[in-house]
Design brief:
The structure holds two protein chains of two kinds.
Chain A: H1 15-18, H2 20-30, E1 35-36, H3 37-44, H4 48-60, E2 64-71, E3 74-81, H5 83-105
Antiparallel strand pairs in A: 1-3, 2-3
Chain B: H1 7-25, H2 32-51, H3 58-80, H4 89-115, H5 120-142, H6 145-163, H7 166-200
Helix pairs in contact in B: 2-3, 2-7, 4-5, 5-6, 5-7, 6-7
The chains are: A alpha+beta, B mainly alpha.
Chain lengths: 106, 201
């Protein structure tokens, strides 16, 4: 007689965080207090258009905040991760670990 | 959406997170020179107070000049940079330790000079204790054993100032400044140069 073990509930991955560039941006922002658009562009090697679009999605999800200001008459766009962003990234990491664990078990 | 994800893809995402967090924390700031700079400033002040004219002015004048010069150099360094390095919590923690130490040393020197109770043994002991504390705190934050070695060196100088003769106290201070400021500072500068090369490679 075989006993059927119940499958553990596998977590869903947050689609907003899962996007590769968005995931990279959240991971970069989680380690710093704030970052300029140009720094994020240099670190991710992304184009202005794509980076702007992905940051907008993160902003709409409430995961980052944006501040535009002028420093020495030059425009600066500063991004910061929010508590919701931190929480979502932590949840995402937890979910990935769980999925990787279940993949290894299988 | 999790079903079609392969183990390799999950692993890639996990690596991406780790790499980006490390990248965000990687700093291209250079601080090694400040150790050398202050080491030289201390030695200049000591030499002036021992052999120069108006010895009572040696420490206040050298320290004020060194502080102003360092602020100007840091401002110039920041202006030259085209891409601003973001602040990290780690960086701010270390910066706080050193700024607080600097302020405590400043006030100590000022009040000892003003009160006329300046005593070489007390001065060396307290300054060595403070610099040992700053190095130890910084090394514990960074998990950097070599810097903890500097802290131990400073505390040994503190012990020498407490128990040794005048000559031993001053000799211990000079040796410690040389090792923990100049040699350690040059070592930091070499590490920073290597890090910069690796970043630009």
């Amino acid at each position: 007689m075989s006993v059927k073990l119940p499958m553990p509930d596998l977590p869903e991955l947050n689609p907003v965080v899962h996007g590769k560039l968005r995931l990279a941006l959240l991971s970069l922002l989680v380690g710093v207090e704030e970052a300029e658009f140009t720094w994020l562009r240099a670190k991710t090697g992304s184009t202005d258009g794509n980076l702007g679009a992905q940051l907008l999605k993160l902003e709409e999800a409430g995961y980052v905040t944006v501040e535009k200001k002028f420093v020495n008459r030059k425009p600066q766009t500063i991004y910061r991760i929010t508590e919701a962003g931190r929480h979502s990234l932590a949840e995402y990491v937890r979910a990935i670990k769980q999925l990787l664990g279940s993949a290894m078990d299988a | 959406m999790t079903e079609p994800l392969k183990s390799q893809e999950l692993q890639d995402r996990f690596s991406l997170i780790e790499n980006m967090i490390a990248e965000g924390r990687r700093t291209t700031e250079s601080w090694g020179w400040t150790f050398v700079f202050w080491g030289v400033a201390y030695l200049v002040a000591m030499a002036w107070s021992s052999w120069g004219p108006k010895a009572f002015l040696a420490w206040p004048v050298t320290m004020i000049a060194a502080t102003l010069l360092m602020c100007a150099m840091i401002a110039a360094q920041r202006r030259r940079k085209t891409e601003k390095q973001p602040d990290t919590t780690l960086g701010r923690a270390i910066f706080s330790v050193w700024v607080a130490t600097g302020m405590a040393m400043w006030l100590l020197l000022l009040f000892l000079s003003m009160s006329g109770r300046f005593d070489w043994h007390v001065f060396i002991a307290v300054v060595s204790a403070l610099l040992g504390l700053a190095n130890a705190a910084s090394s514990l934050i960074l998990k950097w054993n070599i810097q903890f070695g500097c802290a131990v060196f400073w505390w040994a100088a503190m012990a020498a100032a407490c128990f040794g003769s005048d000559r031993i106290a001053v000799a211990a201070l000079v040796v410690t400044i040389f090792v923990c400021q100049i040699v350690f500072g040059v070592y930091c500068m070499v590490l920073e140069a290597r890090e910069r090369e690796a970043t630009h490679a």
